[in-house]
Amino acid sequence: MTRFFGTDGLRGRANVDLTPELAVRVGLAAGFVLGEGEPGILILGRDTRESGTMLEAAVASGLASAGWNVRLAGVMTSPGVAYLTNLLGADAGCVISASHNPAPDNGIKFFTAEGAKLVPAVEEQIEALLDPEVLAHQERPRPGWIRPLKDAGRRYTEALAEEVRADLTGLRIVVDCANGAASRLAPGLFARLGAEVIPLCHQPDGRNINAGCGATHPEWLAGTVLREGADAGVAFDGDADRAIFVDHEGQVRNGDHVLYIIGTQRRAQGKLPGDLVVGTVMSNLGAERALAAQGIRLERTRVGDREVFARMCETGAVLGGEQSGHIIFRDRLNTGDGILTALEVFTAVRKAGKPLAELAAPVELYPQLLINIPLRPGLEWQDSSPLGQALKEVKALVEPEGRIVVRPSGTEPLLRVMIETPHQELLDQASQRIQTADDFPGLTCTLLSPAG
């Protein structure tokens, strides 16, 4: 059976892999599974991709055919859908988005009534119904209705502002919206809270989402912060479930810095249960040691904000996240929210009376390199293969001070190899050894964290 759901919902090339026909089946199957057979109300949003309205109509039709009443939030961030689902007492939420992926892609992911992503077991139940022959044997209830949800953006941003009680007066900030779902939400919210806002990449046309901008391309943001003499900047991705920051010196500050800034602030306020934050195997060793110096333990889990959330629930942690900028404030929302993260960080800056650069300075990141190797038929990375042997040699080279993490991507056909060591020369040697182990068309190397 084809595996449709990955680590963050269902994704694919719109109208090729993710067709309207499949989207109708996904909506229908989800409608039969969610609510344990009792249809309810679902909040449905989408990002700014040109395929969004097509897939929105298909998913909504499938859900209505399964008896669900669908409220259309229109263009809305993924966490915004999760927040509204919980705020309005809906029974489930769904967003049409491929997050940080390029514009031709799209995706579908669902949220529970509490605003959390579905656990894999529930997604497997939905997958089991996607076969047209299986769906044909499901009894159809009375169809539900599909109606717009008025003022969805205002309701969401006003609730966030009330939640954080942020005052951004006096801050001059650059806001890169990635031409995505935050474009009509974040700049206006920050301005209403007193900030002087310089918007960037906030004019979506359906095809420019994430195009050389946003959280995965912070270079433009960094240059604009320096040119405008801003206090700081923030970049979201297409669905604004992550946030990456730039300080007034033009230095990029990622999720590891955010965990340190907010973690130390909350510990000082007595609001960090167990003196614990949750990160992933990708969290930088420098951040872990900076947190430890402040009496805070970093608990690691597998990559994925759903994995982070699960470990937070197990341990009672209220703060967790990923280096990529997915930060979860479990005492506020059960999923990562880029706009909420920005409010928390800028509020911390205001309360401390110190620039972002100074708050982040104690985190001395180890050099960290990410190598993406396209998966192809026959590619192996076990010990006996050329790549496997290279990985084994690199492990011996960088340990014990450093480490290597090897994992298949959950959202793209890639093998991700992360190498981390305090010694740049060892990082260069390790990278060269892997790149020459075999012929890897399309291999890319990205320096996630430079030294310092």
Structure characterization notes:
- The protein is 36% helix and 22% strand.
- It has 452 residues and is an alpha/beta fold.
- The chain folds into three domains: 5-150, Alpha-D-Glucose-1,6-Bisphosphate, subunit A, domain 3 (Alpha-D-Glucose-1,6-Bisphosphate, Chain A, domain 3), CATH 3.40.120; 153-364, Alpha-D-Glucose-1,6-Bisphosphate, Chain A, domain 3, CATH 3.40.120.10; 368-449, TATA-Binding Protein.
- Strands 1-2-6-5-3-4-7 form a seven-stranded mixed sheet, with helices on both faces. Strands 9-8-10-11-12 form a five-stranded mixed sheet, sandwiched between helices. A four-stranded antiparallel sheet has the order 18-19-17-20, with helices on one face.
- Helix 1 (20-33) packs parallel to helix 2 (52-65), helix 1 crosses helix 4 (120-128) and helix 14 (386-398) runs antiparallel to helix 15.
- The longest helix is centred in the C-terminal third of the chain and has 15 residues, at 338-352.
- The chain is globular and about 65 Å long.
